[in-house]
Amino acid sequence: MTASSSIITRFAPSPTGFLHIGGARTALFSYLVAKRHGGRFLLRIEDTDRERSTQEAVDAIFEGMDWLGLASDFDPVYQTQRFDRYREVIAQMLEAGTAYYCYCTREELDQMRNEQMARKQKPRYDGRWRPEPGKTLPPPPDDVPPVVRFRNPTEGKVVINDLVRGQIVFDNGELDDLIIARADGTPTYNFCVVIDDWDMNVTHVVRGDDHVNNTPRQINIFQALGGTPPHYAHVPMILGSDGTKLSKRHGALGVMEYRAMGFLPEAMLNYLVRLGWSHGDQELFTRDEMIAKFDFDHVSSSPSRFDMEKAYWVNHQYLKTAPLEKVVPEFEWHLQRMGLDLSGGPGLEDVIVAQRERCRTLLEMAEKSHFLYAELSGYDEKDAAKHLKPETAEVLEALVTKLSALPEWQAEAIHQCVHAVAEERELKLGKVAQPIRVAVVGMAVSPPIDQTLMLLGRTRTLARLEAAVEHIRNRSEQH
RNA sequence: GCUCCCAUCGUCUAGUGGCCUAGGACGUCGCCCUCUCACGGCGAAAACAGGGGUUCGAGUCCCCUUGGGAGUGCCA
Question: Is A111 helix (H, G, I), strand (E, B) or coil?
């Protein structure tokens, strides 16, 4: 089907900061529609505002998109590299009469706005430089560099058939003549978007619903140019957990912050796709399933809150089931970030398998695995007081003897040693396992004791058990 | 102010006029499992913002109210 295979969507952030969670979801939705229909996805950098755009932000956006695995099917487009094209179109519009020069100064405009607000009217340009048949314009002042305004229709309505909102109607009488080129000649957002979407054959515009009010203006520009507007899908914004707009204080974090918190990119995508979209009762989706099932009919039109708890849960599901080769590099990244030397410790895959059921994030996993790659810095005070009691010294010693005699360092054999020590003394397993745990981990939490010792290795295990015996003896002598 | 949008458990949502005494998931609480922490299993509490219509029948359609949000820039 030609129509659907030629679908092109785009994600068009302005590089004024990192890729945040809302942008990431918009990008994902946009990517998904394209892939769903065998189309292509484009990344476009909207950097016409040179004051606020930075290279760091551009890099941060690429880094985020890259981490999430949302690749552009085209070379990314930069609006600042298209200024010649914008100028060309503006000249054409001036020529055709669909745009005109306006010589109002900023002061004049401010005054106009203030007066209108004072009269409780909607602030808008009054069209004083707009050419009309039979109207005489004032003589252009020669000390004011003009801006270019779009000559918006004054009659009729603009109808948007939004893919998620349904029909939205705007009265042209509500719109005014927006500026499409600044006094310095640089084009503005609403204009560039239209030219770009047009030139790049974008068929579906997926963006935040803060843009719905721009849409009728953009449609009008399209029509003035003789182009056909794309389909629009305005997705609601993502709110913080308290229901207010995302701010730096709560959650307006870059996606890379979520990496630092220990999220897997696939989990992030899965959480995001379910935020505002649903497919029946399904919670977990592989990327292929997302692509096969995503549709705008089931995108919610009300804003949703970012729920960290649910995000953790999704991440945990991925941690438990994701192929090891996906998890290892991310886990390694965290361990190295903690400054650990991995060479003397157990293999990462084994650690992940032992830890993944009890960790919701990779960061948590790294913290809980710290004892495997570095010497103990001491015992948790409470745990030591509870489990490293004078009578346990003998138990640990007995275990040292048994473990030393083991021909091979295998989990099953270790397990039997621990059980034997417990049975010989008619102790419950917990009475033996917990002291061991504190002795080798430093605290009373770790994977099953045989696995813990297995991972730690014979040398470190024996050394730590002996150190614990010494610790207990020293302490009891002091009393 | 004006324009536009939104409204089901605490949260994400199912629901497209009868299948709804409203389902699932996260979280919460209880029980079970258990060498710790977890995983897992079982169970519980928990919602259609309010008011009018339309209809034999409304969470689902319409209107109003209330409450949220966005826009109203020579920002994007």
Answer: helix
